[in-house]
Amino acid sequence: MRYPAHLSQITTALLLGTALPAAARAQSTGLEDMVGARAGQGEMELQRRGYVNIRGEQGDDRAYTYWWNADRRQCVSIVTMEGRYNSIQPTTAPDCRKPANLRPNPNYGSPPASRPRPGYEPDPAYGRVPASPGGGQTGYPSGGPVVDGRSVELGLVCFGDGSKTGFASGTSWNWNRDRDRYEAGNYTETRREVFDASLMIQTWPGGGRIRLPKSLIPPINSRGDQGWWDLRDVSVSPDTIRASYRLNGLNKPRLTIDRRSGRITVEGMSNYGFRGTCDMIGHEPRRF
């Protein structure tokens, strides 16, 4: 199974402790002001700034497109959610089907072209973090959702790689010595399935909940509420969030989130698990 290129990079970074090359991280894309722009209107502006659409991929709840700028020698990955550019990140040349030895042009100094019209302007409220009544930040554009009378303090969207035990069946051919021929038979086996996935997490004082994609819900489950499962034993510290949830009587996965890096790990029975990175709703530039 092929995964979006950015998910492969995340997985590699998690397993090997590596990150994108420094040149790919540091180079400005010249597109920072376009986060929040409507995708349809933003495409013409991207072309005007010298970017060419290379390819696109569809995730669970978002779309990924990869754009190449020959002058900058820069590939960017754009995440689109609900019709708007959610993030624009520099990535490596192979993601745009270019040779791996191509590096961003260090001598490129031209600023982004001036805007000819306001047609692609981002939503002014997109990603804005308003002040709470106490002077802090709520992390939500409109004060945050309320779940069963409880105000959500932290909202996360996490994307990465999930895994679980799957079943495969087929036909095998065996030699029948008595009948002097091959005969067909059926077999069923278990195997580890790996797939790209995204999940959502909300927390409030003393509790929270997690929304699982269908790919992380086994056939026998405790029937979550519209895809949401209650979090249990929630522990929140300045650096770490820990909790668990009950999929069924035997499988009670535990999750750990590193608040400094944004990395999340979910571990359950057998091959059940998830590895990825979380973004805080309406919050930049820190993770959470």
Q: What would you call the quaternary organization?
A: single chain
**Unreliable stretches, pLDDT < 50, 5 or more residues?**
6-26, 111-142, 283-287
Q: How far do the termini sit from each other?
A: 32 Å
Tell me what portion of residues adopts beta-strand conformation.
Answer: 35-45%
The total of helices stands at 3
Overall structural class, as computed from helix and strand content, comes to mainly beta
Radius of gyration, CA atoms, in whole angstroms: 23 Å
Per DSSP E runs of 2 or more residues, the count of β-strands stands at 14
H-E order: HHHEEEEEEEEEEEEEE
Q: Label the overall shape.
A: flat
- The helix content, as a percent range, equals under 10%
Largest sheet: 8 strands, antiparallel, barrel
Strand order of the largest sheet: 7-8-9-10-11-12-13-14
**Average pLDDT taken over every residue:** 74
Protein architecture, described:
The protein is flat. It has an eight-stranded antiparallel beta barrel with strand order 7-8-9-10-11-12-13-14. Strands 1-2-3-4 form a four-stranded antiparallel sheet. Helices cover 9% and strands 41% of the residues. Among the domains are: 5-96, no CATH class; 146-164 and 193-280. With 288 residues, the protein is mainly beta. It contains three helices and 14 strands.
Write the layout of secondary structure elements.
Blueprint: H1 5-16, H2 22-26, H3 39-48, E1 51-58, E2 63-69, E3 74-81, E4 84-91, E5 146-147, E6 150-151, E7 154-176, E8 181-204, E9 207-211, E10 228-236, E11 240-244, E12 254-258, E13 263-267, E14 273-280
Antiparallel strand pairs: 1-2, 2-3, 3-4, 5-6, 7-8, 7-14, 8-9, 9-10, 10-11, 11-12, 12-13, 13-14
